[in-house]
């Protein structure tokens, strides 16, 4: 037997291939958490800090300690337009052609959700009550943006650490709403629909079923078990409403998905109780990452169904309420995607998902 067997795995939702090559697999050393470096000048200029509300465009939404006036201190979470937006709310969407190329006005929304008046606290380090307010803030903005019938897709995401694209260290997430459905989503939506119309139900519900109730066994001719694969080994954490696990074909050592256990097509369907459970799950999983890997850079995003206020109930997305299951994908930046990944769309993951899940599951967090 060679020392390791690289394995090709296919992700059933995105259709993408991953090479799991665990030759270099080793348990992380739980390094001292590293803080991002920041100059005192940059810190003093931070537009998201308490008392500097006039440094941002006027706020769109806040959760406040009762009765304070807008754009002044007294807030707990605060959403403002991005100062350097990728999109803006323009009066008209105009489509143009330039030779073979298509262009449209960059209609859309680009907002920043500031997670705390304090500068030096990470999302996961905040008290549960504050993380619950942050999750509620995302929800409020998502629901509101879907009222705009020109916006087809709302994406909530967070960059943590410079290497993950965060330009300001003050804790914040971002919300982008677009007039087009992003390609990454389109292929997922189509694969999910295909799975559904084949009579196999929701592809995410099936994955949860496999994690908990399904034993994968390969038998010898005499009926004895040759290999038993415990899918449950990929579970990182679980609570009353949510499960966090490493996908079968993870692109990176610490790619973690968080799913509601019961079927829902969009984050906007969550109840306040469910959002509290989500806050608990996010805190737990992000604290495990922080502790095991020493505050690494990470990104996460929420994938919901497109805006169903405008998406037709027939055609490609006719069964979307049943076939799409919203989820969060966390990508910890411990590896760099290089030429091979970018040129082929095939990812090399040097850590077996089962090992990654075990390291995280075994990382204890006082709650
Ligand atoms: Zn700040
Ligand atoms: Zn489902
Ligand atoms: Zn997704």
Strand content: 15-25%
The largest sheet, given as strand count, sense and whether it forms a barrel, is:
10 strands, antiparallel
**Shape by Cα distribution:** globular
Helix/strand-derived category reads alpha+beta
SS field, number of helical segments: 8
Query: According to CATH, what is the class?
Result: Alpha Beta
Radius of gyration: 22 Å
Read across the widest sheet, the strand sequence of neighbours is 3-4-7-9-8-15-16-14-13-12
Please outline the helices and strands.
Elements: E1 7-10, E2 17-20, H1 40-45, E3 61-64, E4 75-81, E5 95-98, E6 101-104, E7 108-114, H2 128-145, E8 153-160, E9 172-178, H3 183-200, H4 203-213, E10 215-219, E11 225-230, E12 235-238, E13 242-245, E14 255-260, H5 272-293, E15 298-303, H6 320-323, E16 327-332, H7 339-344, E17 347-349, H8 353-361
Parallel strand pairs: 2-17
Antiparallel strand pairs: 1-2, 3-4, 4-7, 5-6, 7-9, 8-9, 8-15, 10-11, 12-13, 13-14, 14-16, 15-16
Helix pairs in contact: 2-5
One zinc ion is lined by residues 188, 303, 327, 329.
Please characterize this protein's 3D structure.
With 367 residues, the chain is an alpha+beta fold. It has one domain: HIT family, subunit A (2-Layer Sandwich). Helix content is 26%, strand content 24%. Strands 3-4-7-9-8-15-16-14-13-12 form a ten-stranded antiparallel β-sheet, sandwiched between helices. A hairpin with a 6-residue loop joins β1 and β2. α2 crosses α5. The protein is globular. The structure holds zinc ion (3 copies). The site of one zinc ion (ZN) has 4 residues, from β16.
